[in-house]
Amino acid sequence: MNEDEEMLQFLGLRSVDDLFSDIPEKFRTGKPDIPEGLSEMEAVSYLKNVLDCNISSAEYRSYLGAGAYDGFVPAIVQHVIGRSELYTSYTPYQSEFSQGLLQLIFEYQSMMSELTAMDVVNASLYDGASAIGEAAMMCSRIAEGGKFLIPRAMAPWKKSVIVNYLRGTGVAVAEYGYSAATGQADTNQLADMAGQGACGVYVEMPNFLGLYQEDIADIRGVIGKVPLVAGVNPLSLATVVPPGEYGADIVVGEGQPLGLGLNFGGPYLGIFACRKEHVRKMPGRVVGATVDSEGRRSFCLTLQAREQHIRRSRATSNVCTNQTLLSVAASVYLAAMGSAGLKYAAHTIEHNRALTMDAFAKAGMTVPFRGSGFNEFVLITDSVPEHVSREMLRHRMIAGLPLNGILPELGNASLWAVNERMDGEEIRNLVKTVASVN
Fold it and tell me: Could you give the 3-state DSSP secondary structure of residue 172?
């Protein structure tokens, strides 16, 4: 009897398949269809052929956004995080022995604090969606109220994460609308809902439709004392007012634009920041700078209330690790770019967005929301977005995200993303191609 058979016998099971009997059949993938007995050379060749079935942004131009963007990644980012002492970095449980790792986290926190204008930044979370979920939970600890308000115009996968986080807490998710004329949040509705028992309000800047909220500075007054959670694209903060300056209590965001690449959808980086008065209710850990017994600069965990092994019964969250490698990558990107480089990249993206929107409008296509924004915009076509997407692939282009299943009132709308690498020729070619398949 081998080890597998011994374990199955101990568990009272007949086969490995019995371990997964509670998983519906439609969700099971089965074993990989890989021939047995392959040499290393044969296995590499086989897997390469399988991977060649994927469509990569290295071969196709991608205009698909909604949270993952095909931006430029400086070579130094991959060079630094590829070092062995960083590549395998993980949450340190004997943390003070890991001075180098703690310093890296401290540098990340310091940079993100400056970028967001917030008092405290934690050591990072899994991704932007889980950061919003944690923010919703934190709001329920800060303020009374049975509703957490989110925009109706929001990525559905993020909504799903928030709903799952709040399941069983007694806090419900409620959606506020957007203006059909501007695409921005309906602040009048937001004010009414905030005054009816809300424990928190989530506002995106830029929002899901790619637009900056022009009256973002007024929202703090509109919602009163209800905690304000600001969702940001961190790269956009190089050119717009940071959330700390318009009264945000909590700031969350997806760190992918900070030099992480697409990575086939992950791993990514969840940014989480808050005001100092809320720090005891914040999930995750905080690294601080101090001095040791001999007066030498050193680093330590100044807050780790979420740990399973520390204050477990009163932990703020069940976050089991932080994305150290990804936060290091973001730190390298920020340091390499510097303030001037970040501003140049952000301004270039905003400029390319305006040029692309104008080009589509001049070509006779509808761009319904012409307000200022960062790197995305909505385009309405004559054909359904799915048809446009299929035809664009024939031209080695990945089209924008179809919105007809998310916001059906917009009709044949899709969400398109631009980046800092685009030039006038690419924009003209993009518009010409879309017009030809529309």
Answer: strand
CB 330, CB 255: distance < 8 Å: yes
What's the pLDDT tens digit per position in 66-105? 999 999 999 999 999 998 888 776 656 666 778 888 899 9
Distance CA 42, CA 30 (A): 22
Domains and CATH numbers, the chain: 61-72+338-437 (3.90.1150.10), 75-333 (3.40.640.10)
Number of H helices, E strands in the chain: 12, 14
Tokens 């509808």, located at residue: 366
Residue in 276, 264, 243 with CA at minimum distance from that of residue 115: 243
Nearest in space to 426 (alpha carbons), one of 354, 356, 346, 367: 356
Q: What is the pLDDT of residues 248-276, one digit of tens each?
A: 999 999 999 999 999 888 889 999 999 99
Q: Is there a contact between 279 and 294 (Cβ–Cβ < 8 Å)?
A: no
Cβ atoms of 289 and 182 closer than 8 Å: no
Q: Where are the beta strands (DSSP E) in 259-339?
A: 270-274, 286-291, 297-303
Report pTM: 0.89
The Cα–Cα gap between 331 and 144 comes to 36
Nearest-5° Cα angle at 133, 132 to 135:
60
Q: Where would I find the beta strands (DSSP E) of 245-355?
A: 250-254, 270-274, 286-291, 297-303
